[in-house]
Fold this protein.
Amino acid sequence: MNPIMYRQSVRKFTDEDVSPQLIENLLRAAMQAPSACNQQAWEFIVIGDEEDKLAISKMHKFAKPAAEASKLIVVLGNLKRAKIESMIEQDLAACCENILLQATYYSAGAVWLGFHPIEDRCNKIREYLNIPDYCIPFAVICVGYSEVDREIQIRYDVSKIHYDRY
Ligand SMILES: Cc1cc2nc3c(=O)[nH]c(=O)nc-3n(C[C@H](O)[C@H](O)[C@H](O)COP(=O)(O)O)c2cc1C
């Protein structure tokens, strides 16, 4: 199974908990991501408390999966660790994708909830989790086991490919 082709967003989760080992494996994958100047300016908050998950699920319209997930991984960018601040979003996006792919590899389900750069979302999670102002609350990855099986959509589209010139 190729996790790149089989990954899909999971928003409905069973009651089964993911193990601390799985979370560690996801974080290991996260920290293997490429980063500008190898700056590795990421940090993570792992959340399993029901009340916290519920609060995060209400932080924006598309955050509902957080309530049902077994664990949440809040992906942060620590600007104090950054060498090239302007590239940090790209590093963190690679980091999030690594988590999603590793979850797929372990037959778990995950979805990326967007926070940064939407100010209102960032303010809410920053305040709730006491995130310092030198850290960007980039995204929340919900992790659990999928309740439903969805068919994979192949998105390969030759009309989007240009050779040599646009
Ligand atoms: C930057 C970004 C932000 C996203 N934010 C949300 C979100 O807030 N809530 C959500 O349910 N899905 C979110 N997603 C997941 C996308 O909706 C999903 O990847 C897209 O619909 C394609 O579906 P697939 O992941 O199943 O292939 C986000 C994905 C990205 C890359």
Remarks:
- Residues 80 and 134 are 7 Å apart (CA to CA).
